Amino acid sequence: MALENDNELRDLIRKAALLNAVSHDGKAQAGALVGRILGERSDLRSKIKELSGIISTIVNETNNLSITEQKAIVEEKWPETQKKKDVEEKRLPPLPNADKYKQIVTRFSPNPDSVLHLGSARAIVLSHEYARLYNGKFILRFEDTDPKVKRPSLVFYDSIRQDLKWLGCRIDAEYIQSDRLPLYYEYTERLIRDGNAYVCVCPAEEFHNITLARQACPCRNLSATEQVERWHQMLGGDYKEGEAVVRVKTELDHPNPAVRDWPALRVIDTKKYPHPRVGSKYIVWPLYNLAAGLDDHLMGMTHIIRGKEHYTNMVRQKYLYQYLGWTYPEAIHYGRLKITGAFLSKSKIVAGVKDGTYTGYDDPRLGTFAALRKRGITPEAIKKMIIDVGTKANDVTLSWENLYSYNRKILDSQTNRYFFVPNPVQLKVIGVPQTFQAKLVFHPENPERGFREYSITPEGEEKIASLWIARKDADTMEADKIVRLMELFNIKVRSKTHDMVTAMFASESYEDVRKIKAQLIQWIPKGEEYPCQVVMPDASVNDGYAEAACKKLKPDIVIQFERFGFTRVDEVNDKLIAYYAHK
Ligand SMILES: [Zn+2]
Prior knowledge:
There is one protein chain. The protein is of the alpha/beta class. The longest helix is centred in the first third of the chain and has 16 residues, at about 5-20. It is elongated and about 105 Å long. It starts with 6 loop residues before the first helix and ends with a strand. The mean pLDDT is about 95. Zinc ion (ZN) binds near residues 201, 217 and 218.
């Protein structure tokens, strides 16, 4: 057949030309297409001249269309190729008072006492996204100033950096609070000298009662000189853990008792609880509001985007700003994002990994980024979901299914499809008239991605073809039932035992069984099976056979097992190990 009349080829070129055109301002490049088409149809290498002629004709036709017409055709015929753009086009509401600042600066400030999980996604994605939207700066700040209760661990600094990288969040500057203690001391001393903070040595219980009564404790009104002396004694180790706290003065009758003279620094016995980075070098450690409050100003933060549970912290920190003559950054407090079933507290995750309940921080049962990554949940899906939820102050509850649906939209057109038969059962088809060459495209809507082929050759007098099918499908079979083996042929079930289904060849064409809505099932020719284990989200394992073509897969790629679901390839060795994402 002359290439000129090969309609399939013409369609392939037309699609490639249109896609190329819409991504190049309406002008497809013939040169780029020749290579592309040859990549998919190597059989045409000997006919390059003829092929180039056809390509150049089609490119001319394509380029004669306006870009609007080109886009309309692409949108109508191959909408899946345009999906990725939708994902990126979603916009967040503008930041308040953005034009007041020369450069927008946002931050994400985790305590490295655990790995990150989905619960942190909102803070990360929104802060990073806004920084990019305004050509600003995104700061990562490790808030590691509690060596005792929320003890940081060195491995988590790294895993947090990796998670941010995976999420596509570029860090413009990184700070670690445990490096900054001298700085916090300096400002504390200033606050104390100015009479805006004091060292309180009252027992906690007593102080609590005094506060509730809106009274000053005996330490509060000591002279600044005495306060500074106490402060130096505190730094010098004269007070043991629990014996002294630096407090920032507020109104004693502040309507929220938790705000009244809030604690800013305390003593920690770092001989007993050494800090993983600075050991026992310091014994006076800042509490959250002092360190975060000072840092937000010192690091030039313009917008703080965080959960509304931090609202009271802002109220506390504003006292610091008032005393130091600073202006508090713009603050956006969003509502809680709950993902049903996804949350485990950080401490439970850490404990569960330590005691072996979980295989690691990427155990598929966990909602950690490491686990999501392992399962083939894309960072784009997480981002899109978070951006869609936006910065609303009301609480939002999402389900795993919501996240899966974002992920599915992204993966469906990108991933190639393969056959997997979990829990395999043998299928014997009798009376197969000839050798069948099954040509299975990797993606029905993107035939240009190519295909793999299997030949099914009948053997013996009875012309028997042997294949593997999933036990689940075998279980639904009964005598006389007509079933279609996808892209192969139709069979009529004759009998079955526990280990084998016997069927008769029925016919080849799908049209024959379309009207009776015959079930379409996946299959693998005997001899073309590749042992495969799919680890499910509940950590159970689905054992079965993947088709031989899967041996060529590279780890980390996400594929779709037909009628089974999306899985991420983890290992390709003597068997395939994959992690299940979702349907
Ligand atoms: Zn006191």
